[in-house]
Amino acid sequence: GVLLALRGLLDLFAGVLAGAPGAAGRRDDVFPPAVMTLAGLPVLYAGLAYVAGVLAGVAVLLGLVAALIGYGVQRRAADAAGADAEEDTIGAGILDAIWTIKAMGAENLVLRRAERAARQDALAARATVRPFAVAGQAESLIDRVTLILTVSLATVLCLNGLITLGQLVAGVLIAGAAVRAAYRGATGWAASRGAEAAAPSAMAMRLPPLPRLTGNLMVDRVTFEAPADGIRPVARLMFDRVRIEIKVGDTVLITGGDTQMQTAMLRLMAGLEAPGMGRVSADDYDLAAHAPDSIHRQIAYVPPMGDVLPGTLMENLTGFDAGRAADALGAARLTGLDVKAAGLREGFDTHLEGGAAGFPAGFRQHLAITRALAFKPKVLLLDHATENLDSQDLRVFSEVLERLKGRVTIVFASNQPGLRALAERQVDLDELQPAPEIGAGPDDDDADDAPMDQGGNEDDGGNGPRGSV
Asked: Would you say residue 467 has pLDDT above 70?
């Protein structure tokens, strides 16, 4: 009776903590429910050993089995919860950066990330269906087994005069309570540990913003494979351990390969595609480790055909950030978009319907280029972004690039001779060779095969972009 009273006091103390105003957080941090449950086990087992002797040994074994079952079940549940948290965090990130995703044409990348998270969530959930079903039956089964074994053993002991009838009853009650406490304590402990482990994972997915850049780019031993889709039945290996280095203020033309390869390289540099292996960095900051929205405000990628978002012309230029209106007007004057806006009924306040319908390809490209410049990026990536501009707009934009040379890192792919002539060096994707690992000796096969300069210029002094695979 004294031992049960002590156990009751522990339960009462836990209840007081649970009901105290503002104490829920302290109880979970300092006295988690699982800890309170497990704290009572020594009292119960000590009491059982005192009351029923050898009966305590059976209860200890049953308690260990129950604890192992409970821990295993709850760990599976924690894995599923972690997958759910990852999917929710990706969804929140998409909502946070929806404008950037649309403007930069990053929908496919985001969809692939969301699909991977959903697939992992489905696999984890399927793996937990059976444990959850078992969990509902495990406790009652453990109770029954405990009752049968303890009653049987206690009856034998009582008939042999080793314990009294009162000790038999007390031993059975205490043994049942001890085994249930072991099961519930183990499940609670596993749940709390799983929640703590999932919290850092969720926080890790909320990536920090990219620090202010100067404009260096490095593609370091990157392998990238374009996945199979409705057009291509099998995956295509685009790059295999390639290395390209671009310095601040360089103006670099991407040549060779095909249009798909050129687009893939520019999107890798923009952080819009994730390499299968290797690292893409800006000023030595790994793009994969920073928030996409912060990347795309400093590394501007202009796709072959920019999108028009529902809203005014000014909102399309500012990304719905009224505080950037002055920068947007400056960029519009720079590219000549202000002249086109003046011809509209409401100027920059003219409402544009989203999508491609009703807008010439040249206007969409003009808008996308101006939008990118409005954010004053340190790196400008142009993916055949001027192919549909008329001769006047192309001349104006070529002058803009001339003014930006040396101040902004410019990497572009283009079929237009006038624009290609602006490049200070070239990176030919067809000439990229396997990059040797850092520290590889001169006898390394890859090092022997790697060209010294991918820039195509003899006077680069070895400082041009390098490619290796």
From this structure: no
Residue at 337 is within a domain = no
Per-residue pLDDT tens over the stretch 68-127:
766 666 566 555 555 555 555 555 555 445 555 555 555 555 566 566 656 666 665 555
Q: Are residues 225 and 275 in the same domain?
A: yes
* pLDDT tens track for 351-367: 887 665 677 889 989 99
- The answer to whether residue 329 is domain-embedded is no
| Same-domain check for residues 184 and 224 | no
Instruction: Extract the tokens encoding 7.
Output: 């156990």
Q: Which helix (H) or strand (E) holds 246?
A: strand 236-246
The gap between the terminal CA atoms of the chain, to the nearest Å, is 76
To the question of pTM greater than 0.85 for the whole model, the response is no
Please give the Cα distance from 354 to 314 (Å, whole number): 14
> Do 56 and 76 sit in the same domain of this protein?
yes
Residues 357 and 307 sit within 8 Å (Cβ to Cβ): no
Residue 134's φ and ψ, nearest 5 degrees, are -65, -35
Query: pLDDT band for position 401 (50/70/90)?
Result: very high
> 3-state DSSP: the chain helix, strand, coil percent, rounded to 5?
60, 10, 30
Which CATH number covers residue 372?
3.40.50.300
Q: What is the mean pLDDT of residues 62-69?
A: 70
Query: Do 141 and 254 fall into the same domain?
Result: no
Residue 258 buriedness (CB in 10 A; 0-12 / 13-18 / 19+): exposed
Which has the higher per-residue pLDDT, 163 or 272? 272
**Residue 42: domain span:** 2-205
Span 24-53, average pLDDT? 58
Looking at the structure, tell me whether residues 154 and 186 fall in a common domain.
yes
Residues 103 and 245 in one domain: no
Per the domain annotation, does 20 fall within a domain? yes
Q: CA-CA distance, 222 to 225, in Å (whole number)?
A: 10
Q: Does 201 lie in the same domain as 123?
A: yes
If one counts the domains in the chain, the total is 2
Rounded to whole angstroms, the Cα distance separating 338 from 331 reads 9
Burial class for 407, CB neighbours closer than 10 Å (0-12, 13-18, 19+): exposed
Residues 296 and 380 in one domain: yes
Contacts 24+ apart (CB under 8 A), 60-66: 62/142, 62/145, 62/146, 62/149, 62/175, 62/179, 62/182, 63/178, 63/179, 63/181, 63/182, 63/183, 64/182, 65/142, 66/138, 66/142, 66/179, 66/180, 66/182, 66/183, 66/186
